[in-house]
Design brief:
Elements: H1 2-20, H2 27-36, H3 41-63, H4 69-94, E1 100-104, E2 107-111, H5 113-130, H6 132-135, H7 144-158, H8 162-169, H9 176-212, H10 215-236, H11 243-261
Length: about 260
Amino acid sequence: MRCMSYVWVCAAAAATAVLTLFSGFGLGTLLLPAFAFFFPLQIAVAATAVVHLANNLFKVALLGRWAHGDVVLRFGLPAAAMSFVGAFLLTRLATRPAFASWSWGTHTFPVTPLGIVLGGLIAVFAVFELSPRVAKLEFGKRWLPLGGAISGFFGGLSGHQGALRAAFLVRSGLDRDAFLGTSVICAVLVDVARLIVYGATFYRGRWDLVAAHDGRGLVLAATLSAFAGSWIGARLVRKVTLPVLQRCVGVGLLLLSVAIAGGLV
């Protein structure tokens, strides 16, 4: 079981690190459910955030020199501020008890407010993968602060922000390299903000749970796998398009959202 947990988490980290450089979904999209199989949801979100931040810092070294400072200020700062709000809401939801349950054979599955919210959000972001019309939503430059606030809030709450960030930044007058560099800087700002909240709540009181499941080893292994995926992705970003894969991921996310909302994960 321990070996399979490493295989599962590392494969998800490496694969999605490749995809996140040129697709509409981010590292957290598939890494969150990978961690959720081994930890409670709130711990899974926090563990994903650690890997996400480390990988984004690595991508800053690869792409950060192309970032556009004005767009980072107008989009990234509101994103970081609202990430605090989203992360705080996650900590509140995590303390809410199950309000219903259902059984299958000898197993009982709790339905919690956190599961419903995260499952619903994942379903929404699955739509971004399945619907070309929704996935191609774009906004003008004047909406950058609002876009940063919205994507930052959902980044703090569930870790899913990549599709929204791309929708708002794609029309900000950036060329491809500047878009990639600016995106990764903004992602780092969100990750730092939410990890401050997660660290003050989940890790402080639940590190024993993470350690008991070899969580430190899994986080480190996932981080290194994500580094490898980002390095590969940086070399493929101009050569690969993934519309079919995005649709497959979208279907998988819809199934995952039902599993999370229903207490299976």
